[in-house]
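Work Package 3 (structural annotation) set out to generate three-dimensional models for the target panel prioritized at the project kickoff. During this period the team completed the workflow that converts sequence records into C-alpha cells, so that structures can be stored uniformly alongside our sequence database. As a representative example, we reproduce one entry of 347 residues exactly as it appears in the project archive.
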Amino acid sequence: MTLGPLMADVAGVALEPAEREMLAHPLVGGVILFSRNYENPEQLARLVAEIHALRSPPLLVAVDQEGGRVQRFREGFTRLPAMRMIGRRHAADRPAGLALARSLGWLMAAELRAAGVDLSFAPCVDLDWGLSEVIGDRAFAAARDAVAELGVAWMLGMRDAGMAATAKHFPGHGRVVADSHVALPVDRRELADLEPDLAPYRRLIANGLPAVMAAHVVFPALDERPASLSRRWIDGQLRGALDFRGAVFTDDLSMAGAAAFGGAVERARLALEAGCDMLVVCNDRAAVLELLDSLPAAPDPVRQVRLVRLHGRAAPRREELLAGDRWRQAAAAAAHALDVPALRLDA
C-alpha cells in the first residue's frame, strides 16, 4: 500500500476501532498528534507503534513540537524555549546562538524519535515583523540572515537526530496581523518585496531541506488564493523559482484561512492541484470522512518518494538517550536558555 495524501488526527491516547479503519484507508498517509494524545513518553511510544503497525510503509506520525508556547508534549519531555530566545542569544553571540539552535533542534528531534515520532513541524522561519501575534516569539528574529542561519542550524540538529525538518509557514506569515486559524490573512506586498521572507527558504533549500508547510495567507500580487492552495506559489515559486524538491504539507485545511475557498473536498482538490503532497486536516472528523469518500487522488510515484523519505531514521531508545552526554548537555542548554531573563539577552 502507498502513502495517501491525507494527514488526519485521532481522539485520544490509544486508537479506537473506527480510527483503525479510517487510518487503513489508502488515501491516508499520516497522523498528526496533539496534547490530548499524550500522557507520558511510554504511552506515546505505544500509540506511535500502534499507528506504525497498521500499514506498510508505515503512516507518518507528526506533531507540532517547536518549543515555547507550541509544544504538544511537555511532562516527560524537556521544556524548550521559544525561538525568539535563541534569536536573542544569536544577536548577542553569533557562534553561541548557532550552537544553541543546533543543540535544541537535536534535542527536540531526539526525544521525539525515542518515542517513534517521525516528524515535528519545525523550524518556524517566519520573520518577526512585529505584526503577527500568532507568530510573535515563534520567530527567531526579524533579520532574514539571522533567521536563515538559525533555521539551517536547527534543521541540521534535527538531521543529526534522525528527523527531517519542515520549514514553515511558506512563503511567510509574519507580515500579516490576522491569524489564519480564525481569519483569512492578506499580504498586499509585491513579489519583489517578499524577498526577505523567502531568503530563509533559499538557504534551507540549498542545505537539503526535506519539507515545507504552506501558509493560508493570500498574496494578491501573485494569486487570489492562499499560498497553500495556489499553483503559482507551490508549483511556480516553491518548486520552480526556488527549486525545492522535497515534500509540501498544507497547514490545517480546517482553519478559517482555507475554509473561505470551498468545502473540504474543494479545498483538498485545490491543494493537490497546487502541488501539495500532504493535506493536513485536524479536529474535523466529518471532513476527513467526507474526503475519504469523495476525494479523487490517483497514486503519484513522485509524491510517494517525497513522503517515504520523511520517515524517521533509527534512533536510541529513551533510556539510552537520557543516559548520554549529548542529551544532558542539550537539556542543560535548554534550561539555561529558559532561565536567562530576556532583559539580559537584549543587552
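Residues 94-114 form the longest helix (21 residues).
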